[in-house]
Amino acid sequence: MIQGMRIPEYVQIKDVSPRDGLQAEPTIVSTDQKVELVNRLTAAGVPVIEVTSFVSPKWLPQMADAEEVMRRIERKPGVRYSVLVPNPKGAERAFQSQPDEITVFVSASETHNYKNVHRSISESLAGFAEITEMAKDAGVPVTAVIVTAFGCPYEGRVPQSQVLDLAAKLTGLGILDITLGDTIGVANAVQVYDMMEAFQLSLPMVRLAMHFHDNRGTALANMVAALMAGCDRFETALGGIGGSPFSPGAGGNLASDDAVYYLQEMGIRTGIHLEQLLEATRFLESVIGHAVPSRVYRAGGRMTPVGPEGDWHE
Amino acid sequence: MIQGMRIPEYVQIKDVSPRDGLQAEPTIVSTDQKVELVNRLTAAGVPVIEVTSFVSPKWLPQMADAEEVMRRIERKPGVRYSVLVPNPKGAERAFQSQPDEITVFVSASETHNYKNVHRSISESLAGFAEITEMAKDAGVPVTAVIVTAFGCPYEGRVPQSQVLDLAAKLTGLGILDITLGDTIGVANAVQVYDMMEAFQLSLPMVRLAMHFHDNRGTALANMVAALMAGCDRFETALGGIGGSPFSPGAGGNLASDDAVYYLQEMGIRTGIHLEQLLEATRFLESVIGHAVPSRVYRAGGRMTPVGPEGDWHE
Lengths: 314, 314
What we know:
Two copies of one chain form a homodimer.
Chain A: E1 12-15, H1 17-21, H2 31-44, E2 48-53, H3 66-72, E3 80-84, H4 88-96, E4 101-107, H5 110-117, H6 121-138, E5 142-147, E6 151-152, E7 156-157, H7 160-172, E8 177-182, H8 189-202, E9 207-212, H9 219-228, E10 233-236, H10 256-265, H11 274-288, H12 295-299
Parallel strand pairs in A: 1-2, 1-10, 2-3, 3-4, 4-5, 5-8, 8-9, 9-10
Antiparallel strand pairs in A: 6-7
């Protein structure tokens, strides 16, 4: 009996290019350009956009205009404009800008968390407890990203149980929207599929999202594995920007363009208009001044038969 | 209950770089270099190698030394050295070189077949009937590739039934080893998975292999879908070469390096030694004189934790 591939009918894309993408760019992008990028993502139909990050400008000068960007973007009803916060101090700033959700982040591996935010995982969680209290008062939902969830540059492979334990602590703080980040692009299909199943079994209340980096060209393959295990939320970045643009084989994010194209070809709805998204990529490329890694942007999205007279070489 | 991802324990990789790869290269590669490429693939543990093609040198000058390459390669017992033939004339030449198998090819779409080999699909099949007779006498197995099996540049999306009908005709000629080629890189996971299931249902005697091109970065994702539907044979090319090196966003083959790395990470055996394969890629790159698209070759295969003192930027 033909079963068919068991996949979701709708997938929610959260585009993180204005934050995770631009923070990795060497060029400082102007506030005008950031606002236009977010507006173009909105116009293309992206349902959730990570607009900026309320980190100290000392650490990330690229995000120093967080308040201004949040004030100037055109908000479309129904679209969620999300912001990243590293700690309670950042959250305080963030709430002033009326985000639709705020996102906290913690590493699955102790060493990476310390290198990234200069505190232990427990110290990060203590901060989240404060933040969720503030969020309750402000009426803003909190989501969390567990970074290095599949592998850590310092500790290597991260055990599944370590990720589940950390996620359980997040649910204890009332955070049920959790994203797993493959920060250095080392996840594989089996690991992703099994992780997804383990969450469904032990933390069925969690709404899990996946955030794949593409250092080794594995991001789309990992997305297929996640989809087949029932995952219906992905974080991607326009053009595939992000990661470190200075390292060879640059490991950007899964490109929103590539993800949306492939989901559309699979018959999965995203509500995103691919051609308009590719227009936004064209704009992004002009802003950052170098080629983006997106494959569909380069090769063209739809198959357009050239007809019997077309020129074709195998 | 945790099911785990249902995948094969062993996957057979057929490296087609000496043929499908080199034929697309503008530089003429010397016979010595071709022989060394095949020998390096053998040394890395590749179980099946597509060594060359017995086409007219008029059409493909790059393959004019087919006989000499076949004579000079070092054959390792157990490894299958395969050759491509376009017609009975090519097959006659091929059998002289004692291949372990010969491969014929036909398009799923009439227009593409005509453009590619200047005959109709029925004329191609008539030629295969002659070839299988010759092969029986020579005691050499015949395999077939159905190209444009997922999409055709002239006719667009190719219906599944068209591929099944053509495959059924091939089985009628005694050809049970059949490869489906996504020649222009337009397949998606659902299409691949459903195709695989349809073959299992209507042509269960066929040993199906998949051959994905990577024009839109979808080849590895399509491999995951095929694996999950039970496919355990893939054709890949060292370094990801192949396709048209002249078009932007060059659509090469799925890189053997990337496929082997990812399968290995998933815990699937291939018998191939990744580090030796990457050495072969280094050699290949020096021969063709330009960067290969393989991602793992660029980024490094294994995750090597740098330890707590390492330098890391998110």
